[in-house]
């Protein structure tokens, strides 16, 4: 039988309710330990060992309070056992005294309390005499015994274990009716088993504890190496900047020297001046009456000198060609030639020194993707092998197009309208007759459409809402900022997935369509998820798990629920990907869903019902200058892909090209859009294209058809 102390919380002295284990391995009720958490200092002092635990946020405290499933199971078993034992007195007292003659029919299943020997003898003597003399009185005694405590009875019979007659008790471990001696022997066996298991547990604890200490030591060494590498990268960057500056000055000086040399080598202006001077004076000489021999000799000497200079100038002009400076730019600046590829290698415990120049930082394809601030997910670079495999796929299966000049003849999509937004429009969504625009911190603007799903007319602003009170401040570090990863809308709620920039797990919040948090509308989401996408046709919430490389979905309710967080307890696997697949974006329409593979620049389109892949589109348009970063599905299953300009030395606004592809096997381009600093994107049910664009710290949303 389970000891009651094992299932009792040390704080509230009641049975555990939602037992949670804190980092020091002590367990308490979740409500009890939450009351001990200091929200101002973000610390928790263990009530048992008084160890101080430091957290970065309340959400981290909730995430690290792990549910103790073992304790929860023990509580359930203990309560079930108590419920069974509570029925024992009524079972025994309801039987007449003569029923002891039929003990074999119930002794194995009915617990019998242990009693003093004196009480057993007295009760047996009184009972037997009353039975022989006055049966009616005996029946009265039996009836009155119902209300008496069960401790007034005992049983002398044969033990089920040793088969020797004696006082029987109920074993607290196996619930069998056995004698005291057998119960003591059974307890000795149990104690031996417990002692043996505890010794095994102690051995395992010592091994894991030693391993954990080594891990902490290694983690400190890793942090030291990381800080050293950060310093090296900073210094190396400064050197590169200085090298570029020196090269710039060198080229400018060379060009300036060439200009001066060219000007000095061809004295055309001096020759012209000398010619014009002689010509004027010769004319004056012809008009003068005073022509002496000396004047004629001087003019002849000057003319002869001018002829010599003309001959020299003629030779220079014949032997030299006009040259101007020309700078030949490389086709593409490879970032690996400047910084290299960042990799994470296994720590060598034998190594006690750190040499930043020994870190293998060679080229990797993903390093060329210099994204703007919307690139907030954790990036794990592919290996060089995967990089070469990716290049081989492109070279063997498709013929790359080096530029997008071939699409200049493709018609551009028409701008229908645009509206102003007071922040950066990261998310643009529609539902019914409403348009929702939100930034990555929860600043929401709600617009009203002319009628349901009618985007052709410019919407009207209804209200502006702050979904969260913890709006970012300037003192918050970039990694500690909490941002909105995903923002979707369906018939019951606005669903927001919020996390820290350097993490993949976070919290799901549920709001009304007016922007108010619903009761119980907060759910801790510990899965490494990204890109939540709503399927309004089926009430399914799709999401990507970048760790397990899976596409999952939640089945959301069709009507309001008092416990909406229960909707996110069970997720269903739909498609499993294999390495080096790197899913970053998904899009859904009525019949199909599409997933963008970042590594291969490929969009995979699947049938939602059969899970079969219908087709694959690999980006071949300007792959040397542009990177496919996002995509969306039209109602006919065709694609809209977003190409971001790649520049490893990018200094200005990001430039983007949107390509609408047809449904043929060649996926021909049938429409284009060009934008600068574009963020949010969606395709409406009527195939209009909505794009959010940043203008400094604010933005606009444009509608194209």
Automatic annotation (TrEMBL):
Record Pfam families: zf-C3HC4
Keyword Zinc: yes
Keyword Cell division assigned: no
GO molecular function annotations of the record: zinc ion binding
Keywords annotated in UniProt: Metal-binding, Zinc, Zinc-finger
InterPro entries: E3_ubiq-ligase_TRIM/RNF (IPR051051), Quino_amine_DH_bsu (IPR011044), Znf_C3HC4_RING-type (IPR018957), Znf_RING (IPR001841), Znf_RING/FYVE/PHD (IPR013083), Znf_RING_CS (IPR017907)
Positions with biased composition (Low complexity): 86-113, 133-147
Domain (RING-type): residue spans on this chain: 9-50
Alphabetical list of SMART domains matching this protein: RING
Region (Disordered) residue spans: 86-147
Protein name: RING-type domain-containing protein
Species: Rotaria sordida
């Amino acid at each position: 039988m389970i000891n009651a102390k094992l299932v009792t919380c040390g704080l509230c002295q009641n049975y555990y309710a939602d037992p949670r284990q804190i980092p020091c391995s002590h367990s308490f009720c979740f409500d009890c330990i939450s009351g001990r958490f200091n929200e101002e200092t973000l610390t928790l002092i263990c009530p048992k060992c008084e160890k101080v635990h430091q957290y970065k946020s309340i959400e981290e405290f909730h995430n690290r309070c792990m549910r103790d499933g073992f304790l929860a199971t023990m509580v359930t078993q203990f309560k079930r056992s108590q419920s069974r034992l509570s029925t024992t007195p009524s079972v025994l007292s309801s039987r007449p005294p003569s029923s002891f003659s039929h003990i074999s029919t119930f002794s194995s299943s009915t617990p019998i309390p242990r009693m003093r020997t004196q009480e057993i003898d007295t009760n047996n003597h009184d009972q037997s005499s009353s039975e022989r003399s006055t049966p009616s009185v005996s029946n009265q005694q039996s009836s009155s015994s119902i209300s008496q405590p069960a401790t007034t009875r005992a049983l002398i019979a044969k033990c089920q274990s040793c088969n020797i007659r004696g006082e029987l008790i109920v074993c607290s471990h196996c619930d069998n009716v056995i004698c005291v001696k057998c119960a003591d022997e059974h307890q000795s066996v149990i104690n031996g088993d417990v002692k043996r298991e505890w010794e095994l547990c102690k051995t395992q604890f010592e091994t894991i504890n030693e391993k954990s200490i080594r891990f902490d030591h290694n983690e400190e060494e890793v942090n030291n190496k990381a800080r050293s590498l950060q310093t090296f990268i900073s210094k190396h960057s400064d050197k590169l900047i200085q090298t570029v500056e020196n090269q710039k000055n060198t080229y400018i000086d060379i060009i300036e020297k060439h200009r001066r040399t060219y000007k000095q080598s061809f004295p055309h202006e001096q020759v012209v001046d000398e010619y014009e001077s002689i010509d004027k004076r010769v004319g004056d000489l012809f008009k003068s009456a005073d022509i002496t021999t000396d004047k004629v000799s001087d003019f002849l000497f000057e003319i002869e000198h001018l002829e010599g200079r003309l001959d020299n100038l003629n030779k220079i002009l014949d032997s030299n060609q006009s040259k101007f400076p020309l700078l030949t730019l490389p086709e593409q600046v490879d970032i690996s030639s400047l910084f290299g590829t960042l990799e994470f290698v296994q720590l060598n415990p034998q190594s006690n020194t750190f040499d930043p120049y020994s870190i293998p930082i060679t080229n990797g394809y993903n390093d060329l993707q210099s994204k703007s601030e919307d690139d907030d997910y954790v990036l794990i670079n592919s290996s060089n092998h995967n990089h070469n495999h990716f290049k081989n796929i492109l070279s063997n299966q498709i013929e790359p197009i080096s530029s997008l000049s071939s699409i200049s003849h493709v018609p551009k999509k028409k701008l229908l309208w645009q509206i102003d937004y007071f922040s950066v429009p990261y998310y643009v969504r529609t539902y019914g007759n409403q348009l929702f625009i939100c930034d990555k911190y929860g600043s929401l603007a709600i617009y009203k459409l002319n009628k349901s799903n009618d985007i052709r007319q410019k919407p009207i602003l209804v209200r502006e809402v702050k979904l969260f009170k913890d709006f970012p401040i300037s003192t918050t570090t970039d990694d500690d900022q909490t941002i909105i990863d995903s923002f979707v809308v369906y018939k019951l709620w606005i669903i927001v997935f919020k996390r820290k920039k350097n993490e993949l797990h976070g919290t799901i919040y549920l709001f009304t369509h007016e922007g108010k948090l619903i009761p119980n509308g907060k759910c801790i989401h510990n899965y490494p998820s990204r890109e939540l996408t709503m399927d309004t046709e089926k009430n399914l919430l799709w999401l990507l798990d970048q760790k397990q490389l899976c596409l999952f979905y939640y089945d959301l309710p069709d009507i309001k629920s008092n416990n909406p967080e229960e909707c996110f307890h069970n997720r269903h696997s739909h498609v499993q990907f294999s390495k080096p697949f790197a899913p970053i974006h998904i899009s859904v329409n009525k019949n199909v869903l599409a997933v963008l593979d970042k590594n291969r620049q490929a969009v995979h389109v699947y049938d939602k019902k059969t899970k079969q892949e219908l087709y694959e589109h690999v980006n071949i348009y300007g792959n040397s200058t542009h990177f496919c970063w996002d995509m969306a599905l039209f109602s006919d299953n065709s694609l809209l892909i977003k190409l971001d300009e790649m520049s490893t030395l990018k200094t200005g606004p990001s430039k983007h090209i949107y390509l609408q592809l047809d449904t043929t096997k060649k996926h021909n381009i049938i429409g284009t859009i060009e934008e600068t600093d574009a963020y949010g994107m969606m395709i409406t049910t009527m195939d209009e294209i909505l794009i959010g664009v940043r203008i400094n710290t604010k933005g606009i949303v444009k509608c194209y058809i």
